[in-house]
Amino acid sequence: MGLTSKPLLPNLRELYCTEYNSDLHACVRYVLSPDLICFRLGCTLEWTNVMPSVLSGLSKHSPRLKVINLIDMPSDRITELTLRELHHLQDVWLTLVGDKAFQFRSASTLNVLRISSSTLTLIGDMAEQWVVPCKRLKLYSNVSVTALAVERALCELNNRILCDGLEEFQHDLSRIRNPIDHAFSFRTFTPLMRFSSLKVVEFAPFCMSLLDDDALGSIVKSWPRLERLYLGNRFFWEIPPRVTFQGLVTVLSSCPNLRELGLVFDATTLDLRTDEKPGGGVCNTNITKLHVGFSPIEQPQKVAIAILAILPCLTNIFLDIEPGHEMPRSLDRDVREAKWGEVTKYISFYNLIMKQEGFRV
User: Fold this and answer.
1) Predicted confidence band of residue 286 (pLDDT cuts 50, 70, 90)
2) Helices 245-254, 300-310: inter-axial angle, 10-degree rounding
3) Neighbours of 338 (CB within 10 A)
4) Which end of the chain has less neighbouring CB within 10 Å, N or C?
5) pLDDT tens digits, residue range 120-130?
6) Crossing angle between the packed helical segments 331-357 and 300-310, to the nearest 10 degrees
7) What's the whole-number mean pLDDT along residues 161-181?
8) In-domain check, residue 60
9) What would the mean pLDDT of 275-298 be, rounded to a whole number?
């Protein structure tokens, strides 16, 4: 069948290409319609020189594109023409590899930008020529780097990707490391603290054991609109946390809109302000689930009472660990897991009492 310059599917609005033979690369250009708004390119066993040429013509063939997902296409196959003059882009997902940087300048603020790479350092290096403001930034790395390297990378992304109006920042990780130099400190967060518009901050797979109550308080007070916060709750850390129950209270008092929370803290010493009002009267009724990682704990019943005082609508407590990344079992971890299980039972019991008796503990 002979192919013409006209699109075969002129009304096509969404195109999803998953696994396919490289012989079909040349055919892709003929289904790029003027009305195409979503283009997702999946994995293929072999890349040819045809596909970069096809991608370079996206603005010509499909100028109304809003969503581009090139997660399975290595960045060294992406030219500067690929994303140029696509003035309606809202959602972009790229995978950065190698050391070949390219220019990416967005005419408007993206709704969401997703970037995958081996390390956060690589993202910082390759975004040197970018100006891509976005509301939601999601970064995915394979291997962790030191906290100092994280700070440097975030500084490099400032005013390139991290711009005014940023509402969501997430950094996920495939492989973790436990050394002390990989644990975040107050300085690690400083590049993000100027964004008072942030509603979501997620560093769930990173160790936060070096943060104390004062440092955590200073960090969260710079994000008064925060609705979702996850810090270090995904794994069991050998380094004990410095954040205490009072740090948890500070987070709740500083971020009244908070609806989701994951935080590792030392629950062995509650240090309550008064026996009558744990948390000094701070109360958040939005949060129903609390993710505590494997926080140290000794007295489950006392912890349950204290937590319910500040989170009266709480129904569940979770100890998170990413499937496929189970760390070696230890007696300490097993004990914590059992005691937090007791806390959950106490909370369920108190909730049952409140429901039956019509009062709140």
Assistant:
1) very high
2) 10
3) 11
4) N
5) 999 999 898 89
6) 50
7) 88
8) yes
9) 87
Instruction: Enumerate residues 6+ apart whose C-beta is below 8 A from 332.
Output: none
pLDDT at 26: 64
List all residues 6 or more positions away from 214 whose beta carbon is below 8 Å from its beta carbon: none
Number of domains composing the chain: 1
- pLDDT tens string 228-277: 999 999 988 888 999 999 999 999 999 999 999 999 999 998 865 545 56
Q: How far apart are CA 269 and CA 224, in angstroms?
A: 27
Q: Do the beta carbons of residue 85 and residue 108 sit within 8 Å?
A: no
- CA torsion angle for 211, 214, 215, 217 (degrees, to 10)? 110
Q: Give DSSP secondary structure letters for 154-176.
A: HHHHBTTTB-TT--EEEEEEEE-
Predicted pLDDT of residue 2: 47
List strands edge to edge, sheet with 228-231: 14-17, 38-41, 67-74, 91-95, 110-117, 134-143, 168-175, 200-203, 228-231, 260-263, 289-291, 316-318
Which of these, 200, 192, 243, 247, lies nearest to 222 by C-alpha position? 192
Nearest to 68 by CA among 54, 83, 78, 84: 83
Pull the structure tokens for residue 52: 């970069």
In a domain, 11, yes or no: yes
* Confidence check: pLDDT of 361 > 50: no
Structure tokens given for 101: 């940087």
Domain that holds residue 33: 6-88
Is 83 part of a structural domain of the chain? yes
Is residue 13 one of the residues assigned to a domain?
yes
pLDDT, residue 237, reads 86
What 3-state class would DSSP assign to 222? coil
Structure tokens at 349: 């019991």
The predicted-structure confidence for 65-85, as pLDDT tens digits, reads as follows 999 988 777 666 676 667 878
> How, if at all, do strands 260-263 and 134-143 pair?
unpaired
pTM, two decimals, is 0.89
